[in-house]
Amino acid sequence: MRSGKNWAELFRFAAVGLSGVAVNMVTMIVLTLLGPDPEGAVLGIPATEFHVRWYHVFSFGAFLVANLWNFQLNRSWTFRSAGAWRREYRAFLAVGILAQVLGLGLLTLLMHVHSPIALPRSVFDDSSFLLTRVYWAQLIMIAVVTPVSFLLNKFWTFRPSACRPGRARDRSSASRK
After folding, report:
1. Rounded to two decimals, what is the model's pTM?
2. pLDDT by residue (tens digit) across 70-109?
3. Is residue 172 part of a domain?
4. pLDDT tens, residue by residue, 130-167
5. What does the angle CA 53 – CA 54 – CA 60 come to, to the nearest 5 degrees?
């Protein structure tokens, strides 16, 4: 992170990320307002006493919307990529899904009443918009997984084309002409 270019990319990534957080949270809020009780069970996980809850489904839906938003902005503005859109989106989506799976684990721990890091119901009692547990859990989850997402996207999804196989040779031969 010594070069100014890296700091500029980090700033742009953060700006895109903030807009992505807004997109994610608006989607999450809409889904929780229109859908069933976020803490209601969707389906049981076989051979366990655990369930996929609606907040997992809502979080994943919000992730998908924000992921596409973030991809396009990061591709065009943060990393100024000219790579193949589909290849880069597959990589970006894979990174996002990895981060989302980690995040869903954290979201579960923040929401589950018996978890040692559960958000306290005495404070987050869902009595108002600002005291809604699932919204705070979602924000915390996003904050925790963002650094992992940045690093993987910078060094894998949007790596400079000179680092891609076959490209370094093309660039060096073009400079000799």
Report:
1. 0.81
2. 999 988 998 888 888 998 899 889 999 999 999 999 999 9
3. no
4. 999 999 999 999 999 988 887 887 788 777 654 444 44
5. 100
Residue 167 lies in a domain: no
Q: What is the pLDDT of residues 13-48, one digit of tens each?
A: 889 989 999 999 999 999 999 999 999 999 999 999
Q: In terms of residue numbers, what domain contains 98?
A: 4-161
Contact 13, 1 (CB under 8 A): no
| Residue tagged 């559960």 (tokens) | 118
| Cβ atoms of residues 139 and 21 within 8 Å | yes
Note whether residue 27 is domain-resident: yes
**Residue 137 and residue 126 in contact, taking contact as beta carbons nearer than 8 Å:** no
- End-to-end Cα separation, the chain, in angstroms: 33
Q: Could you tell me the CA-to-CA distances from 124 to 99, 110, 118, 145 in Å, in that order? A: 25, 11, 10, 22
Other beta carbons within 10 Å of 173: 9
